[in-house]
Amino acid sequence: MRRVAAGSLAVAAAVAAVSVTACSGGSGGEPAASLAPGSEDTTLWVLAAASLTDVLDEVATGFEAEHPGVDVVGNYAGSTDLAAQLLEGAPADVFVSADEATMDKVASLIEGAPTVVATNTLTIVVPEGNPAGVTGLADLADDALVTVVCAPQVPCGAATAAVAEDAGVALSPASEEQNVTDVLGKVSAGQADAGIVYVTDVARATGVEAVPIAGADEAVNRYPAAVLSGAAQPALAEEFVDYLGGPEAQALLAAAGFGAP
Amino acid sequence: MTGPRWLAPLAALGGLLVLLPLAGLIARVEWTDLWSLVTSEASLTALGLSLRTSVVATVATLVLGVPLGFVLHGMRGPLRGLLRAVVLAPLVLPPVVGGLALLYAFGRRGLLGEELGGSVAFTTLAVVIAQTFVAMPFMVVSVESALAARSGRHEAIAGTLGASRTRVLTRVTLPALGPALATGAVLAFARALGEFGATLTFAGSLEGVTRTAPLEIYLVRETDPAAAAALSLVLVAVAIGVVALAYRPLRGAA
Amino acid sequence: MTALEARVRVPARGVDATVEVAAGGTLVLLGPNGSGKSTVLEAVAGMVPGADVRVTLDGVDAPRAPRDRRIGLLSQDDALFPTMSVRDNVAFGPRSAGASRAAARAEADAWLARVGLDGLGDRRPGALSGGQARRVAIARALAAAPRVLLLDEPFAGLDVVVASEVRGLVAGLLAGVTAVVTTHDALDAYALADTVAVMDSGAVVEAGEAVEVLTRPRTRFAARMGGRVLVEGTMRGGALEIAAGVRVPVSGGPGAGVPAAVAAHPGAVALAWSEPPESRASGSAWVADAVRGLEPRGDVVRVHGALLAADVPVEVVGGIAAGTPAWFGVPRGLEAYALTAGAPAR
After folding, report:
1. The CATH number of the domain where B176 resides is what?
2. Gap from C89 CA to chain B (nearest CA, Å)
3. Spatial contact of A233 and A186, defined as CB atoms under 8 Å apart
4. Does B179 touch chain C (CB under 8 A)?
5. Average model confidence (pLDDT) for chain B?
């Protein structure tokens, strides 16, 4: 399993292409197919929501074990960020989004219907020890409490707005951040008394703890996975999406705090 | 001096590297909607906030950066080099590092303590502090190098004419530094206007309070690329105008 | 009226000099470029960092801060403030002393009129000619009502006509003002000085009443700065013995056996070269020497020997080079004066 930074995706793809060419054309006209199985990796490019970062690495390791010679390269970033990259022509095999709205944006680029592979729910996150004594969503309406949430323009913010509306709470955020990481950062730095993020984000973070939101289950965030129509390895991509819905992957996702599809 | 011919292709490449991204941005702008995109409420709010905070930050760099430039100029020995390096560090610091540093100084759990830090957090003041932090080096550099180019003769003569040190400063030195102060202020303003990383890390992002134009662009770049491109175009235009203004050939000696 | 006394030591520049000016008098510091005159002036004005300066005004130690010292300096470069109008430049001193803007400007205009620049108050210094700028600098320095005014080469860099005009102006304006003027030109000393101090290599080599130093110099250096050539010797009867067997009849002078000198104009000294002159034929006393150097001075060339110098027309010097044997003819009948024992000839 390899992981690449968002910006280097195109470069990595180019390098991979070059190395494949070099191997297939190399060693005195010896055909590439005659190489021993497993000696040459097939690379599967996966773009996935940032919240899947660690767990998807583990899932990929399991997938690689079942598929000798396959190298899964994960590229993690905000879902909307990744969607924007795809729309700009970034090459990849699989896309796993943190919400269905973002998957809809790239509907023209996917093969078949997306499969929901995980769900996530929102939670209140507070600095370790909960210094402000936050007990529930209603506390976050208090102006005196410094609350940080995702901006409504991004998926986590849209979900936050939905949960607050369901609960009839008028949030008074001090800041509307671009993504979950920025919310978490401000809470763990103690700059904010409370924030709203996904359950799985709290599980990954340190220096913070969760305060559950009553009724958060009502606003479940679905993670659709899809094979991209431009995939270089469509069959393998299909297998990977299936594997994500399988028992091994689901167990790992559940351990990371994700809900079942 | 024109240099050897082989400089030309390299210069062309260098020019392209700068021009192509600008061309790319301009190509993305939806000209028919440009006006409505730029004058949308969110855009105007962000631009207005950016302008106000940048003006205040520029004034702050004048009030604080000019004295810093004088002190640096007056210092001798290794301490001067060290202090200059520290003062100018924000110029080359990754913005997010600057933001973290500001957080640890002026944040709620920062050096200034809960009371003071808590009153700065997520306010427009935090934006101004972040902008001043990154813009001040421009003023300090401008003032210090302008002072270094002065012989001090006019100041000495002013002293023999009976002027106090304050009068020498306000009537002789500062007017003579005028062009340098203008250049420093224009560059500081541009830097404040473009400030992003430190603001995002330190001040937060709330419409009308802390969400400046660069933060607005960052926020809408995925959900509303057209608005992001339109707003970017405005900042590009301001940047080019400001740099042209700052580096225009000066009349007379600096 | 303020009397000035100053001891200036600037070891870094090899300067160690004492200057004195009587109240209302003008001292001309006469010396070649690099002799330390400007350093002395700037140090007295309080502008030389690291200088060991003791300045007394009317016998009282002057304050350290230039602002309180009130010693004005007219520098060679004028140093007009380029960001202010001419009027505001001149009004700077009065304003610094607390005058209202209107009063200071009125005073500035009065000073501008006095230096002949009526109506130029609104100009920027950059739009002035060299002579005009010098006049503004003079007006600015005097408008600050200094207790002492120091003028550093006030006519340097001006063409002869302008320099003459400014010299006349300064001579008038300095009446009653305690002033020190540096120059390398004897003309300035004659025009302005009450007293003269001759500087060489950072030290004052001769000082005294202007007419005394200029016409009866005790040192060869002072004589040269005053445009004379010092002929030293010992009185023998009515003549000055300048070398063994060489005597020149003089008028006046001390008694026999006393060291004495005459100060001759180089133009009045005759010169013979290559071959010795007919010693009895001409009206001069001839001293054998050798050419040391040639100094072009417009239409004449001053031929320097080891002891004497003579001006000769420029067109005759073709055959003269350093080392050429030369004979200097000292004219008869010059006024002789005793050389003080305390000031050995250099």
Report:
1. 1.10.3720.10
2. 10
3. no
4. no
5. 89
Indicate the class that CATH gives domain C228-338: mainly beta
- Looking only at the bridges linking them, the beta strands covering C148-152 and C179-183 are parallel
DSSP annotation of C286 reads E
Distance from CA of A234 to the nearest CA of B (A): 27
ipTM: 0.80
Q: Is B132 a member of any domain?
A: yes
Query: Per-residue pLDDT for C111 more than 60?
Result: yes
- What residue spans define the domains of chain C? 4-216, 228-338
B86 assigned to some structural domain: yes
Chain B nearest C-alpha distance from C136 (Å)? 14
Determine whether B6 is exposed, middle or buried from the number of CB atoms within 10 Å of its CB (0-12, 13-18, 19+). Answer: exposed
In whole angstroms, give the CA distance from residue A150 to residue A125. 12
Collect all residues from A whose CB is shorter than 8 A from any CB in B: 78, 80-81, 83-84, 146, 148, 151, 153-154, 173-178, 182, 185-186, 189-192
Window 216-235 of B: residues touching A by CB (8 A cutoff) are 218-225
> CA–CA separation, B187 vs B101, rounded Å?
23
In this structure, what token pair is assigned to residue C57?
């005004």
What domains sit in chain A, N to C, each tagged with a CATH number?
2-119+222-255 (3.40.190.10), 122-218 (3.40.190.290)
CATH code, C4-216? 3.40.50.300
Collapse the DSSP code of B102 into the 3-class scheme (helix H, G, I; strand E, B; otherwise coil) and give the result. Answer: helix
- B161, B176, B252: residue with CB nearest C144: B161
Contact assessment for residue A136 and residue A214, using Cβ atoms and an 8 Å cutoff: yes
B153, B156, B176 member nearest C83 (Cβ)? B176
pLDDT score for B1: 66
**Beta carbons of A174 and B122 less than 8 Å apart:** yes
Mean pLDDT of C189-200: 90
Number of domains into which chain B is organized: 1
The answer, for B73 touching chain A at a CB cutoff of 8 Å, is: no
In tens, the pLDDT along A210-250 reads 998 887 777 788 899 999 998 998 999 999 999 999 999 99
DSSP codes joined into one string, chain A: -EE--GGGHHHHHHHHHHHHHHHHT-STT--GGGSPTTSSPEEEEEEEEGGGHHHHHHHHHHHHHHSTTEEEEEEEE-HHHHHHHHHTT---SEEE-SSHHHHHHTGGGEEEEEEEEEEE-EEEEEETT-TT---SGGGGG-TTS-EEEE-TTSHHHHHHHHHHHHHT-----SEEESSHHHHHHHHHTTSSSEEEEEHHHHHH-SSEEEEPPTTGGGSPEEEEEEEETT-SSHHHHHHHHHHHHSHHHHHHHHHTTPBP-
* Alpha-carbon span C343 to C223, nearest angstrom: 13
CA–CA separation, A41 vs A57, rounded Å? 17
Query: Residue B145: inside a domain, yes or no?
Result: yes
Q: Is B in contact with A (3 or more beta carbon pairs below 8 Å)?
A: yes
Using CB atoms, pick whichever of B109, B201, B206 lies closest to residue A176. Answer: B206
Structural domain of B212:
33-246
Report the distance separating Cα B22 and Cα C108, nearest Å: 56
3-state secondary structure of B161: coil
Which residues are CB-contacts of C122 (< 8 A; sequence separation ≥ 6)?
A: C85, C86, C87
Residue position matching structure tokens 């339109």? B230
Q: Tell which B residues from 21 to 60 touch A, by Cβ distance under 8 Å.
A: none
